[in-house]
Amino acid sequence: MFFSSVLHIALLAAASAAVAVPNPLPSELGPFAKLNAQAKTKAKLEERDDASAKYRFLSDATQQYQVTSLPDVPFTLGEFYSGSMPIKTGDTSRELFFVFQPTIGAPVDEITIWLNGGPGCSSLEGFFQENGLYVWREGDPAPIQNPWSWVNVTNMLWVEQPVGTGYTTGTPTAKTEEEIARDFVGFLGNFMKAFSISNFKIYVTGESYAGRYVPYIASAILDKKDPVNFNLSGAIVYDPCIGQFDYVQQQVPAYPFIKANSNFFKFSTSTMNRLANLHQSCGYQRFLDTYLTFPAKGLQPPVRTQSGCNIFNTAYSAAQSANPCFNVYEINQTCPTPQDVMSDNIFPDGAGGQTNYFDRPDVKAALHAPASSQWTECSNQNVFVGRGGPENEGDLSADSIQYVLPRVIDATKRVLVANGDYDMIIMTQGTLLSIQNMTWGGSLGFSQKPATPINIPAQGNMGIQHYERGLMWGETYESGHMGPQYQPAVAWRHLAWLRGEIESL
Ligand SMILES: *[C@@H]1O[C@H](CO)[C@@H](O)[C@H](O)[C@H]1NC(C)=O
Ligand SMILES: *[C@@H]1O[C@H](CO)[C@@H](O)[C@H](O)[C@H]1NC(C)=O
Ligand SMILES: *[C@@H]1O[C@H](CO)[C@@H](O)[C@H](O)[C@H]1NC(C)=O
Ligand SMILES: *[C@@H]1O[C@H](CO)[C@@H](O)[C@H](O)[C@H]1NC(C)=O
């Protein structure tokens, strides 16, 4: 996908462990445990029957999507729906897959959409490991209640898209973001119709390659010119692919990143010297000196990584030799790599083999997912079928900073771009550098260097915020690629800002 030569990493695929880990799942403990479990299930069912009378979105039309329990999730799900929804009304040959969980707090007339990246990675990662009500984190033997669930305050809609991802139905045909955004808006219209939703605010959020999905989809929502039914009200992107990703967000910032985090990389002096020389000779330091300035000096020239200048791959290989469990998505990880229910095959697959959580037949049945689908966290097929494109992903659309991201900022005045400092796949400095090549609100980049701390109760200073002309920037200290997973209390502040509860982070 991203690095045809040396590497093959999806933006947002958690790098999965090659090491087999013994199955830690609790087993049945004999007849008493079973009886107890039955009594509990009965109590739970009764509780649910009472509760469902109050379910806001339950109707004859939505009942087919209702989910009442999930295998190995020992909690009351509450109001919960999932299933396949056509892109074009009545055409079941191309469908996206959604999980919809209305808020457990006071009812709100809004939908917060969450999208993971890849391209081709499932948004169920967000649902089950980042901002859902219950999360099954890497390394945990069972799911836990998420103390920072976004479901606490908003109606969450996680959507697997584009076609070719996760449980979606159909064959990938898209060559551009414009096409997948049109598909998404078709899906969203059908979803809102089925759930009798109108006049809701819509927030679009996501991570990684969704740095392209989110602004393109938000922009397509604006194209509807229907502020009653498609009231786009803001967006958040985490560690997003918004600029000339491979050069500006990976190569240029790589050496300063490694130097600042030398305690994790532990490179020899000779390796550091080799990287320092590349950083100079390939022009990366000059690029930083010229363009990472406040206010921005001018437009950055179009760029491509020259051969011999792939400092990112050189550093990544060295990091893996030094630390076999090095995780490019969270650089402070060491061995052993924790087991991940999303990508490690640790559950019975119903046919005598082993598979991941969402590929289990019982999980698919519970979620109303196509039984024949072969679910993987990131698709094995390409979900974009163009040739090349600015990120070499078969996705030919312009970088988000060129048109769609500025358009969404100008229209909503409420867009947040966040980046975690322990993320090496999209580095904080590179994202900021991309912002300095974006024109919104009538001028280029931020006029001032971000410097205001983000103070989080019980954690202290957890980053840097900066706001200008509708765009909020949030650098997050000690966070890997998946913002809501690695620093959930900070992401909680992001969500509060998005929803207009607070005006600074
Ligand atoms: C979210 O709701 C749960 C359940 O009521 C609660 O335990 C948790 O503290 C809430 N989290 C926040 C950040 O409000
Ligand atoms: C759209 O949402 C905004 C808040 O983001 C609200 O002020 C406005 O009234 C809404 N527009 C419509 C047509 O409901
Ligand atoms: C900077 O923006 C200009 C004009 O919008 C574009 O032509 C150029 O390719 C961009 N450079 C980078 C490095 O993104
Ligand atoms: C990496 O850093 C995060 C944030 O400080 C921390 O929660 C996590 O435990 C660290 N991981 C390791 C393996 O040290």
Automatic annotation (TrEMBL):
Keywords from the UniProt entry: Carboxypeptidase, Glycoprotein, Hydrolase, Protease, Signal
Protein's UniProt keywords contain Membrane: no
GO MF assignments: serine-type carboxypeptidase activity
Domain of life: Eukaryota
GO biological process entries: proteolysis
Keyword match Protease: yes
Signal peptide boundaries: 1-20
Assigned EC number: 3.4.16.-
EC class (word): hydrolase
Homology family: Belongs to the peptidase S10 family.
PANTHER family reported for this sequence: CARBOXYPEPTIDASE, SERINE PROTEASE FAMILY S10 SERINE CARBOXYPEPTIDASE
Protein name: Carboxypeptidase
